[in-house]
Amino acid sequence: MFRFIVRRTLGALVILLIISAITFALFYVAPRDPARVACGKICTPQTLELVRHNLGISDPIPVQYWHWLAGVFTGRDYTSFGYCPAPCLGYSFHNQEPVLGTILDRFPTTLSLSVGSAVVFVVAGIGTGMIAAVKQGKTLDKVASSASLIGSSLQIYIVGVVAMFYLCDQWHILGRPRDVPFTQDPVGWFNGLLLPWLVLALIFTANYTRMARSQLVETLSEDYVRTARAKGLSRRTVFFRFAWRGAMGPIVTIFGLDVGYLLGGAIITEKTFSLHGIGALSVKAVQDNDLPLLLGVVLVAAAAIVLFNIVVDAVYALIDPRVRLA
What we know:
This protein is 74% helix and 3% strand. It is mainly alpha-helical. The chain has a domain at 103-277: MetI-like fold (Orthogonal Bundle). The strands form 2 sheets. The protein has a two-stranded antiparallel sheet. The chain has a two-stranded antiparallel ribbon with strand order 3-4. Helix 1 runs antiparallel to helix 13 (291-319), helix 5 (99-134) packs across helix 8 (186-220) and helix 10 (235-263) packs antiparallel against helix 13 (291-319).
């Protein structure tokens, strides 16, 4: 198992290196004047020259990338703006601060939104899918399947606005979404994120309900499950000891990808509820033409997805030992 995780980790590091090289090339080779783009909209001629000097525009592209990559591990000295400690993802000339510091300021909001909604949609989605699979062909199964189809067709920017209007403004059941640090006010943090959790989970729950149901229905028809039933094991034992475990593999895979995507920034959700997370930060970086910040956000999002793929591989290997041989 340890060697399996080491192999996956080394592979992930190579993937991140390739992603960083491609992303750097897209952002710093494609623009006609990358220094002008990196400087942002509010850019004086003096600042533009400083940006050109700090980015080393006159150097070849491989040298520029090497300087940027070295800064990730050792830090980088921006002569005109100051020192950026490792890990340095660049310097935002628009915000006048290191990129990583800006991202870390926004990350707690994105983390809270991702983890809270993930708990809701996994519990609700898998639970509903299990019930639908057990009641296959009956009224409860049809209702759950229809509801999941409707839920997967909804859009967050529609459901979110409607939910805020009725639940917050008209009926006053929930408080309006807001950013409250968990360490300062846990109750305010929970109340401020409850509606975004429910709305985001509504969309994902539908997908997990359908997937859990289809996987469990397929697994329940397998020969080893029917053999377990023929041996006289109770229906509960057969379901949780054999069928449930066999059906969890694909669900775990999709769950890891979804959480990685959310940690990389749930852009639509954050903008709909005016939450200041990484997703909203990426939109602001685009609006401000803040190239270093946008590069940093893309790499953090990629790292989150790659990291959770490693976690998924490890969990998958625990569920199915045959995967470790791959």
